[in-house]
Amino acid sequence: MFIVRNALCNVTRNKGRNALMIIIVAIITAAATVALAIVQAAQQARASALDNTTITAQISLDRRALMGSTQPSGSDGTTSGEKPDMSALQQSMADKQLTLADYEEYAKADYGVRSSYYTVTASLAAAEDGIEPVDSNGTVTSSSEDSSDSGTTDTQDAPSAPDGGMGGGMGDMRGGKGGMTVTTGDFSLVGFSSDEAILNAPNGSFTMSSGEAFGYGEDDADEVIVSDTLAQANGIEVGDKITVANAADTDTDYTFTVVGIYSNATDEAQPQGGPMASTASDPANAIYTNEATLTKLGLTPDKTMEITDSRGNTRTVQSAQLSFTYVFAGKEEYDRFVEDVRKAGLGHEYTISSEDVERYEQSMVAIDNLSKFATTMLIVVLAVGAVVLMVLTVFNIRERKYEIGVLTAIGVKKAKVATQFAVELLVVTLVGLAVGIGVGAATSVPVSNALLSSQVEQQSQQMSQFGRQMQRPDGGSSATDVQQAAPQLSDAPQGTPGFGEHAQNMIDQLNATVNWATIGWMLLVGVVLTLLSALVAAVFVMRYEPLRILADRS
Amino acid sequence: MTDKKNTAAPAAQPAAALEAGEPILRLGDVSYAYKKGGPLVIDHLSYSFDTGRVTSIMGPSGAGKTTLLSLISGLTVPTGGRVLFEGRDLATLDRYDYRSRDIGVIFQSFNLLPGLTVLENIMLTMDASGKRFDRPKKEIALELLDQVHLPRHYADERILHLSGGEQQRVAIARALSDDPKVVIADEPTGNLDPATQEDIMAIFLELAHEQDKCVIIVTHSPQIAKASDTVFELKARR
Ligand SMILES: Nc1ncnc2c1ncn2[C@@H]1O[C@H](COP(=O)(O)OP(=O)(O)OP(=O)(O)O)[C@@H](O)[C@H]1O
Ligand SMILES: [Mg+2]
To answer: B124 to chain A: which residues are within 8 Å by CB?
Structure first.
């Protein structure tokens, strides 16, 4: 068709004008391509961040919800000066405490749970003639009696601790969850339910430096492994027997057989509770055993014991704390679990929370912000691009009225003239699109990562403003601290001091590569916009009166 | 001068259908007003144009000569009366086809495409006609340049670089390129020197007499009028 040939010739004939057009289209396309790539990458990141990753979750008692319910109605649920009735609260906390059986009730495959494990943690005191705990400075404390009195110190809140879900014990793990919530005593005795529980040990992953880990049978009760620090301090070797005492009653001694010595993967020697922390919260003083050992000793969550603190106050605490963890194959299963468990009758005084999901949501904030920004940018760029393309087309065609006149005068039908203009426009914009997509593809990754890092920075700044991570759901602290926190409800500020590590954990790389989908979308949008402006051109051509050629001079 | 190689195959036109005595172009009581209800620029005009003759249209400026040409060339339709081409009313024909095949127009201001070369301008008209040519278009176009006495080395020159007289010749060549039956020229000798005028007029005479075309020329020049076969005087409007 000669009109197409003529159009192609015209493209090369009007080099200057078309080059300008190509540059404009390319700039718009590049911006839109980058924006689109970011939006797609953000969606991708959102969808796949938890792919191929197991998710762990816990059910915990929501202190606030409980507090609200134990308070007299009328004070609109807030602690407006009035102190909550502590004993009533403690009572209701104790009543509401989930037992192992309760936890296991929900750990069904029907609910999407892939597996579950738990640890039971009890605190132990140093026995008269037994081993000495390691204090914060890594030395053996001289007096075991003195050390057992710092019971009211705040415990570390577990939420800051990543767990094994994201790769089975990463090197940057800090602190622990669950077991490390012991607030009294000199040692913590952590009973694991399975190897999976050990993999997600409260103090992070560890390796055996000698001996081997305990089994889980009845016969294996009394078998423990101790940390290399504790072993060194007390000269313990594999096969030795160690003696420790009950935290409440130092006359009750327990004797364990050391079957192995472990070494924590992280060099997290400092207990996180500060100088006032109990030595029991020092990872070095954690004695690991199987859950059967604690059961055998009667150190189970359903029993209580009396503890006397330094001020002579006696409190009743649970003999042991249970930390039950559900493992899911993915986010979908977790979401299903939350839904199903609620349906199964789990009250709203309990929260279901997942470190993994929370951390994921957290890291999504920056990505979401970037995605929103990119979406806005995409819309603006496309809108501006559409307008610019229209305006250019109209100007272009007005300038070429004479050409339309000549062509119609020599008998070229208007439809063909319009086609010629459309083809010209299409060729020019396609070249512009190709160049723009190329430029966009080359720059999308660095541009998006630069944008993301500024978002992450902003996010971190916001967090440091708050002194903790933002947007934590209330009571979203992990399951285990709730149980032990009952007696000291009012003195611990909620939230995590360690905001820094969350910033670290945020996704700071976005794979905003331009893929075929991006290219396809850009081409589609580009062609649609081109056809739209071609339509404008066509309307212009159709309205042209051939007679006007007599008035239009070159 | 007597180069008759421009033998583009005549398109399947019902030329034979012409009744005896029916002129190729006839104005039947034609009136035209640019605006609806405006003054009649052409006022109840009747005339016949014969093939094989050069007809000169004369008249004072503003008499409506250009307007009449636009009616004949089918750029617009009369507000009253009919323009008949081979007995058919132009108003009922596809005037795009009519313009591209049956007539060749040399406009007062040439109306060539300035961005295109001489050859491209001529060949674009050939393409637009949709006619089939028995020889390469380029060959025909180059022969047309010979016919209008434009040296062949102008073939690839852009129109912008040509003088008025040269553009005039290209416009004529373009009008002839698709071998139309009617050739219309609006003041084709307006701004040319006498020698060139004569040369151009000779081309038109040859077209009419040798190639049996109907040639219609609007002119103010008495010499041209004298040289032509028929003169059609258009009265000034009152
Ligand atoms: N597009 C138009 N709209 C309205 N009036 C027009 C238009 N073109 C021409 N006219 C009017 O029609 C009349 C005839 O104009 P036309 O161009 O046909 O004259 P002409 O005989 O060709 O004159 P000239 O010898 O100067 O070329 C003039 O009075 C002119 O003002
Ligand atoms: Mg005129």
So the answer is: 2, 6, 410
